[in-house]
Amino acid sequence: MPLKLYNTLTRSKDPFEPIHPPRVDLYTCGLTVYNYAHIGNLRCYVFEDILKRVLLSCGYQVRHVMNITDVGHLVSDADQGEDKMDIGARREGKTAWEIAEFYQAAFEEDLRRLNVLFPDVWCKATDHIGEQIALVRTLEEQGFTYRIDGDGIYFDTSKLPDYGKLARLDLEGLRAGARVEMVAGKRNLTDFALWKFSPPGRKRQMEWDSPWGVGFPGWHIECTAMAMKYLGDRLDIHCGGVDHIAVHHTNEIAQAESALGHKWCNWWLHGEFLTFPRGDAEQAARMSKSSGEFVTLNTLVERGFDPLAYRYFCLNAHYRQQLAFTWEALSAAASAFARLKREVLELKRNAGDGREPIDSHLDAFRAAAEDDLNTPQALAAMWGALKDAEAEKPRIYATLLAMDEVLGFGFARMQEAALAVSEEEIEKLIAARAEARKAKDFARADAIRDRLKEMGVALEDTAGGTIWRKE
Ligand SMILES: [Zn+2]
Predict the structure, then answer these.
(1) Are 83 and 206 in contact (CB under 8 A)?
(2) For residues 120 and 280, which has the higher predicted lDDT (pLDDT)?
(3) Superfamily in which the 4-271 domain is placed by CATH
(4) Cα(28) to centroid of ligand 1, in Å?
(5) What is the rounded average pLDDT for all residues in the chain?
């Protein structure tokens, strides 16, 4: 069965074909490194990782480029307001350069903990100012740009007949409704900045000379310039979050196709949002980074969650469905993942060498993964293999290892965690908890459970009494 992917450009699930098989060129938008990634950002990188792993498992060779936005991403989509890097710098009393370095390292560490395969090329916007200026010059020579004094060089979207085709923007409706903030001097609502001038009389931390004046590149030009530098004039797949469709990716297409004079990227794939349902106790920690308080991978780890349990949580939903985050839902995923880990370790202890995977299970798994990355169904196929009472255990283990090339849980590396507490101590605490429960002191009983959990011990109350296991 051929790999099928949902293409935002066609709004349909189409059989995937790269331009130069077996090579697949993939560009994914990276993080703006003025703060930690929130778990909604990370959901998107997990989806892109599954895409890449599925491509690899189909026998493709993937050339993967991901950028790091370390300049020019302004607060407003209308290219106004402060640079997010400056906000980070002021917040922490550091330079924008220090902020970028710190949060890029933190981002890489998050991806590592989530078992996300690294791109072949990481590229930073500030390392590619020359390429961005060259691309703006090309657009200028072809008559696509105009200047707003005291502001910057803008792209004239009315010069491109199919502008907005990715988002299927209703340009007439947009103009009539004027929902986008209109900037003085802009010819069309959808025009966007290619190069911004430094504010008069104020030196920015990040600014460069250009043919138009001292300033810095707009956000959209960096991705297009770097994608074209590393992957050439025709791209197989470009990914990002759904929030990129209407502005960032729409403008990337405008820049690339105006400069090249032909279609640039064949496939656009977008990951849906992680949402925080209203009324949830954690509503305060919404996904908005501007509120200053948001959930990061560190938040999850501090609450005792394995980062891979978050990966499991993400895979339980299809990437094109919104996923509601609650601590209860994450706990449920963490329990399932802990059970999975236990079963894998049990299989590993009894695994022989050189066993063949079981085709029927593997076929069901691949059919799901290759059907637009249907990870919930792929996980169901994985559990189906685990629960196959007829099959030999070593073959089940071999099947799981094969599936793990796509799932990316790292089954082969999984090990028993060493406990920070003796079994005698655990039994004592369980007895103390039972006493507390008998005395209806549930707060104390819960506190003991939490303490054990911190030490990596999970309790389960059964009809026959409380049993414990390593998490
Ligand atoms: Zn981008």
Answers:
(1) yes
(2) 120
(3) HUPs (3.40.50.620)
(4) 7
(5) 91
